[in-house]
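Quarterly update from the structural biology core.
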Amino acid sequence: MVTYVSKNLKTKIMLHNKIILGFLAGFTMFFLMGCYKDKTVIFDTGEEITKPVSFTSDIVAIFNSSCNTSGCHSAGGKSPDLSVASSYLSLTNGGFINTSEPQASELYLWMTGKKGTPMPVGGINKDYNALVLAWIKQGAQNN
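Predicted structure, tokenized:
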């Protein structure tokens, strides 16, 4: 009789453990299924800019107002250095610009949020994005 009780108890404990493990496995799978990126949200960049875009007048102004503030993309900050004196060389030598595929340029991908947190941190600015994309499409000249 002792053997029968202990086998019965052992079977109940094993069944209980299987139920708990099954529940935990199901819950874990359900939880993890909701924790992956399955869609990329593409933001409209606005009207395509066809006028000539100047790096010095148009693009550097964007960097000065949103990017090269202290602690961000300034000298000694995060790469690329977007300070007035260094921004062009930092972008072109650092591989942030792709004139053969402008929309694949790392600078543009960061600004649109396709590479990570959209830059500038304040949020996506479709006017800035359109201007930068136009500049890259026009050959990313240091003009």
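The chain has two domains: 1-36, 55-137.
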